[in-house]
Amino acid sequence: MADAALLSCNAKRESLSMGSLSFQTIDLAQRADLCVEFRRDSYICSFGSDQAFFEGGGVEGYLEWLREGIARHPKGHVHVWNESSIIGQMEMRIRTNDPPTGYVNLFYLVPSARGTRAAGELHQYAIEFMREGGVQLAHLSVSPTNLRAMAYYQKHSWRALGPRPNDTTVHLMEIAIPAKTG
Predict the structure, then answer these.
(1) What are the pLDDT digits (tens) for 63-74?
(2) Rounded distance, CA 78 to CA 81, Å?
(3) Angle at 177 between CA 94 and CA 35, to 5 degrees
(4) Any idea what DSSP says for residue 110?
């Protein structure tokens, strides 16, 4: 099953440019180590340690989860490119609730790209991904100790809902996805 998912994710590689950045489906065969590096750094930024990453299935569990996510939503699992450099990673999915809802699992930029216009392009990409998937409402979880991220999301119309019911170490946020116009 894992091999089939990997083949299908490679077959579905997609690319989209927005602004000055481009978003390409993660090539897990070539960049698994980079994915792990980015995910671990996201834990350190959020929680001050990557210990929870290793407790939650570790590298192999994460890579299997990512492989399955890429197979289901190739446009939702992308590396963010600035010319020839990867500066970020996004992991998003669409839940098949009624109505469908979106979830952002990872919204990541390398330290040198934080605080730049790149974050806005990632946010716009996320909104477009959700809109294309028929989503009217999207969620994400954020550590309340990550004040910079909390402020960013609130500035971009994400509404804080308080501690996530099944994991009070993070807060749930939501955003209404505007319908396509025209």
Answers:
(1) 999 999 999 999
(2) 9
(3) 45
(4) -
